[in-house]
Design a protein that fits this description.
Among the domains are: 63 residues, lambda repressor-like DNA-binding domains (434 Repressor (Amino-terminal Domain), Orthogonal Bundle); 91 residues; 87 residues, Tetratricopeptide repeat domain (Serine Threonine Protein Phosphatase 5, Tetratricopeptide repeat), CATH 1.25.40. By secondary structure, it is mostly helical. Helices cover 79% and strands 0% of the residues. The protein contains 23 helices and no strands. The longest helix is centred in the N-terminal third of the chain and has 23 residues. The radius of gyration is 24 Å and the shape is globular.
């Protein structure tokens, strides 16, 4: 008698896929520092997330999209085939080429394979740099601190110091200036103590200290760090000197010397062009547009902005497109085109949310609120500022939070709500003291 083949259930057929997706979900959640309950909150339960991560249930696309949004990753990362999508060489090439998101995706995928300790440290170091370039502070600090600890264990102090620079960068993005400065100071101490690293690291650390000092309203100290950096730049390296000049231009803009900011920024732009670094050149064009905007030279600001826009549109870089679109909105607002400014800042906000850049979202929200206020839409401006303040507070961005609260206080005062205006003003002062 013929035997009947045993029929495999759909559950059994789908289990390998469910287990692969579940493992990726768990890895992404762990990297993001979320509990199962926090990942589930708003729509699902902790038990459902647990079942997904253990491959006990087949996930729906709606669920995966929800979780991917919370984790700020593309949903494709949870669904990718098991095949070796990335190689270490590809990851390093993306990092070197400035393709930050592709580099992060590649390093993430390689880390999921469970590499040995030495390889893990190197992959985490690459991941930390990519995340820092994307202004993802919390994730940067997590990856960089683990890499630094592993390098110390492996007896590689120079590599530990290099990745500590990116940890400081992550802390700076989180507006933890004191902690960032402490790490940068430690790097300089180790270099002064004879640790052999590339000379550029010392220069970059001094420039980073200048940026911290500048944001902490200590422009003279910032310029002092930059002068130390200048004294260490001895060889004719266009890109290295361009980075220095760009940081110097930013510091000049912070102290209000716009003429010096423009002059130094233009020198930086020319150096970046000589080094064929189109990405950095485009970012300098945007900064020059902002400097000319502050001077009131709107036509010149538009010329620089158009060059930056052209590059980032060609590159399809949503994060930087958010920044340049916000600059366009600020120029439109200065020209009195309130409706255009509101439309541009709304688009900048959309791009910021699409790219996951919270800093860009806060900047765009501020510009939108100013456009709404200029158009007499006080309630809309207050609502926008409330959202922006919540975002800035959640991210620990003290300088941005202080600016947002100050703006919000002015809006409430204009509406006649002096009690609320006073409360917000006090909160702004408190934010500045933290």
């Amino acid at each position: 008698m013929a035997t009947r083949a045993k029929r495999v259930s759909h559950v059994e057929e789908d289990r390998p896929l469910a287990q692969r997706v579940g493992a990726r979900l768990r890895a992404a959640r762990t990297r993001a520092g979320l509990t199962q309950a926090r990942l589930a909150s708003g729509r699902y339960t902790k038990a459902y997330v647990s079942a997904l991560e253990n491959g006990l249930v087949k996930p729906s696309m709606a669920a995966l999209t929800f979780f991917a949004d919370k984790l700020q990753i593309p949903v494709e990362r949870l669904l990718a085939d098991d095949g070796p999508t990335w190689t270490r060489l590809e990851a390093d090439l993306h990092l070197a080429a400035g393709n930050w998101q592709q580099a992060v995706d590649a390093f993430d995928a390689l880390l999921e394979t469970g590499p040995a300790e030495r390889a893990r440290a190197e992959l985490l170091a690459g991941l930390a740099e990519g995340l820092a370039r994307l202004d993802r502070g919390v994730e940067t600090v997590r990856a960089a601190s683990e890499a630094a600890a592993l390098f110390r264990v492996l007896g590689r102090p120079a590599d530990a110091v290099r990745v500590t620079y990116w940890e400081a960068s992550g802390l700076y993005a989180m507006e933890q200036g004191d902690q960032a400065a402490a790490l940068l100071g430690r790097i300089l101490d180790e270099i002064a103590g004879g640790l052999m690293v590339e000379p550029e690291l010392e220069i970059r650390s001094l420039i980073a200290l200048a940026m911290v000092a500048s944001r902490d309203d200590a422009p003279e100290r910032a310029l002092g760090y930059l002068e130390q950096a200048r004294s260490r730049i001895t060889e004719p390296d266009d890109r290295k000197y361009a980075v220095f000049l760009f940081s110097l231009a930013l510091s000049y803009r912070e102290v209000g010397d716009l003429e010096a900011a423009i002059s130094t920024g233009t020198q930086s732009l020319n150096r970046f062009r000589s080094a064929a670094d189109d990405f950095e050149a485009a970012s300098v064009e945007n900064e020059l547009a902002l400097a000319y905007l502050e001077l009131g030279s709107l036509d010149t600001a538009r010329v620089h902005l158009s060059r930056a826009q052209e590059f980032f549109v060609r590159r399809n870089d949503d994060r930087w497109l958010s920044h340049v679109t916000d600059t366009a909105a600020q120029i439109a607002l200065a020209a009195g085109s309130t409706a255009e400014a509101a439309a541009l800042s709304t688009e900048a906000l959309r791009l910021a949310e699409l790219s996951g850049s919270k800093k860009a979202a806060i900047d765009a929200g501020m510009t939108l609120a100013r456009a709404q206020r200029a158009g007499g839409e006080m309630r809309a401006a207050a609502a926008t500022l409330a959202d922006v303040a919540a975002c800035a507070e959640a991210l620990g961005r003290r300088a941005q939070l202080q600016a947002v609260l100050g703006e919000w206080s002015d809006v409430m005062a204009a509406q006649g709500d002096m009690t609320r205006a006073y409360e917000l003003s006090r909160r702004a002062l408190d934010a500045g003291r933290r």
